[in-house]
C-alpha cells in the first residue's frame, strides 16, 4: 500500500460550490448531462495529479459529500490508484468485507495503474497486447459503469475488473463508460432514449458521448471535448466522436452498406475478447466462399462465417494463451472480419497466417489497398476456442420439435422421471462404500462448483477459458437497492474470508462433507443438502432442460476439404468422452440428429469417419455439398460461432422423421409484415455536412433503444401460436420467421409494421392465451374459470383445441410436478429428519475440556476468560438474530453476504490474547470460541429457539468447526484455500 502523502495547500477559485454552469446559447442536444460536476473540485483535478480512482469515488459519493471531501483531496496527489483508493476507504471509515482473493479478482486499481503506465510509454498502442515492455499483459480490463435512474440522472457504480475488448485496449479503460437502462425504465416508460443519449455527458469537465446501444446498455466514449464555465473546448490529445467512429467502422470506406447494417457492426469492437498474436498485414488474406446453387436457382453459402488458419498461427496461439493442445478452431475478430477460423493442416507456411472468407466474414473495410492498418486491427481478438460439452441438453423448444416429428411423448415422460429419480438417488444415498465421496461428487456436479470457482476468479478471461458459472443465470441486479450506499460490497458467491463459510449451497455442503461430517449426524449439513435437493427438483420441474447422455454440443464448421457427402457430418473429440451402448469413444459413426438453439427444424443426418478429417477434433464438421448448407435447416444458422447439439441416442433418432423442407423456407407474405429501412451510409455522407454526420449516424448507432421489447413480444406470440394453433400450423410457421427476422432486423433493416405487431399482440395476448407449462402457478388459480379480471378488463381465457391432443410440455410438466412433489415429501419423511440427531461431541469437546479443567482446578482466571468468550458469543448472536429476520431470505445475495460477513467479522474480532489472563494465542481462542458457539446453539438458545439447532455457529466459524472435526477424526492434511479450491475427485479410484 502506498503511504499517505502529506497535505499541502491547494489554490481553488472563489465562488459557491456545485455552481451550475451557464448554458448560454447551447442547443438542446448540446445541453450537458453531468455525471460529476463541481467547479472547485474540477479545478483541483485539472491542475494537480489526483489519481483517477479518487475522481471516480468522489463522483460516486455525490454532491452532498463534496464540501467535506474538497479539503481532503491534497492528501492523494501523486499517489497510485491502488494506494489512493485504499487510503480513501480508510478516510471514509469503510471497512472492507472482502477476502484478498476476492479483492484480487474484482479490484481494478492495480490493473489501472498498470494500464496507465503502459499508455504513458506508448500513448497509442500501449494497451493492445503483444507489448515487449509488458509481456503477457494487455489493457482494457477495467469497467466503468453507471445506471440510469427514474429521474433520468446517472448513478455511477463501483469500478470493477471485467472482460477486455478491442476498444478499451486501444483507447484505455478510462475512455469508456457503460450505462445500464433498468428494465422498469426501458420497457415501461415512454421516453425518447435516443434523444437523451445524444446529449454530452460531463465527468469533471471531460465530455463523453454515446456511440452505441445494445440490449440494456449504452456505451459512452471520452471525446476530445471539455466543458468549462458553460462552454465546450477542445482537448488536443483525444479524438472527436466522429474520428473514433472512423477508427471503429469508417463510414467512407463502408458507404455501400445499409446504415442499419453498418451500425450493427460497431458491436465488433465491444466483443469480450483476449488479444492473440499480432499478424503481419500481408499474412491476412481472403478466399472465396463456397456457394451452392439449388435446382430452384436459390444460392446457399456453404462456408458462411468460417475461414482457415495455418498450423504456425495455431501454435503461436497455443503458446501465447497457455493452452495444452493446439486448438482446432477458434472464434475471433481481426482486420474487420469476424467468425471462426479452422485449422488447415495442408497450409504449409512457417509464418502465422489466416484467410478470411469473402464475402461472408468481411464486415468492415478499414483501409484502402495501399494503406497500413492500425496495429489494433492486425491483432487477433480471441473470443472462444473449440471444445466439446457432453452430455448435451434438450431445451423445451427441441423437445416440442422432436415430439412433433415422431419421437413418442412417453420417451420424454420417461426421461423426466429418470432425471428426477437419478437426482434424488444421488443426493440421498448416504450409506455404503464410498457413499460420502459419491455424494460430494454429485453435489459438485449439480452446480458445477469447480468451474464456478474458476469463473469467479477469471472475470477478465473466463469466457475464453471456457469456464461457466451456473449461478450467473440466477443473478439479478437489485434495482431497489439503496442508491446512497457507496461501501464496497462482497461479490456474489464468494466464501466468507473470516468464517470460511461458502456462499452457495452446493459449495457449503462440499466443504462440510470433506471435513468428515455426515448428513445423518449433522443437522446443519442435512439441512443444506435438503436445500440443494429442493432447488434441483424445482429446477427440473420448471426449466425443462434434460441431459441426454448420448449427446454432445460443439461449434459447427464446414468441411474445408470437401470430402463429406450431402447430409454427412464428422464429429470427433480430443478425448474418449462420447458415451455409447458399447462404452466411451472419441468418434461418432451412424445416424444422428443435429440441432441448435433457437430450434426450428432439427435434421436427421449421418455421422461418418474420414481420414482427411481425423485431425479436426472438438468441432462438428458439416458437408459443403448438396443444395443448401446444413445449418440452413437449423434456424438459418451459419458457421461464425454457432454451436450445435449432436444426438446419437437411437431411442430419439430412429422414430424421428425429417420435417418437410417448406418449414426451412420463409413463408409467403413474410415481406408484407415489414417495412424496409434501406438508407445507405452513402446517403448520409452525401446529404449532410461533416459536422452533422455524427448526429445522423447516432440515430442508427442508438437505434435499438427505440424498440427494446419487440423480439420478446414476437417470440412470445410464436410460443402461443404453437400451443393454440399447432406446431405445423401456417401461423406458427410464419411467426417463427417473423421472430427471427425481427431478431436480425438491426442488420437487415426490416422493421415490423405497427399494425402487424398490434394484430399479433392482440391475437396472442398473454392473459387470454396462457401457456400452462410456462405459467402453471397462475393458471392453477383460474383453471376452472372462463373469464378473469385483469387491468380493469374482462379477459376470456382461450383453451387449447382438443383435436390438437395433449401438448408435450403440459404432459411433461404434469409428470415433473407430480413426481417432484412426491419426491420432496418422501425425502422429507425418510431422509431429512433432524430430530433424532444427537449433538456432535467432537465439536463440544474443546470447550467442555477447558471448562472441566478450570472447574476442577477452581482457576478463577481461566473461568473468567471462558466467560468473556461466552459473553462475546452471546452478544454477537443477538445481533445475528436481528439481521436474520423474516426479510433476510428476500435480500439480494450480495446484501445477505454482507450481513453475515459483518457478524462473522465481529465474532472473530474479540477477545484478543491481550484481553485474556490465561489464553495466549489466537488459535486457541478461535477454537474455544467456535466450540462454545456450537455449545450455546445446542444447549443455551432458550427461550427463543424453535428448533434444536441453528446456522449461527456455522455462519460464524465454519472453518474452525471443520478443523475441530478433522482433528478429532484424523488423520488429516492441511491445505491452503487456493489449493483446495482446485481439487476435484477422480471419477474412478
Describe this structure as you would to a colleague.
With 989 residues, the chain is α+β, with helices and mostly antiparallel strands. It is 38% helix and 15% strand. The strands form nine sheets. Strands 1, 3, 4, 6, 7, 8, 9 and 10 form an eight-stranded mixed sheet that branches. A seven-stranded mixed sheet has the order 11-19-16-17-15-18-12. The protein is globular, with a radius of gyration of 31 Å. The model is unreliable at 1-27, 469-492 and 777-785 (pLDDT under 50). This is RNA-dependent RNA polymerase. InterPro entries: RDRP, RDRP_core. It is an enzyme of class 2 (transferase).
In short:
The protein is built from 35 helices and 33 strands. It is an alpha+beta fold and 989 residues long. β16 (329-334) and β17 (337-343) form a beta hairpin.
Helix content: 25-40%
Main sheet?
8 strands, mixed
Give the distance, in angstroms, between the N- and C-terminal Cα atoms: 46 Å
Instruction: Figure out the total of helices.
Output: 35
Fraction of residues in β-strands: 15-25%
Strand tally is: 33
Q: Looking at the structure, what is the overall shape?
A: globular
Average residue pLDDT:
87
Contiguous low-pLDDT stretches (5 residues minimum) are: 1-27, 469-492, 777-785
Helix-and-strand structural type = alpha+beta
Radius of gyration: 31 Å
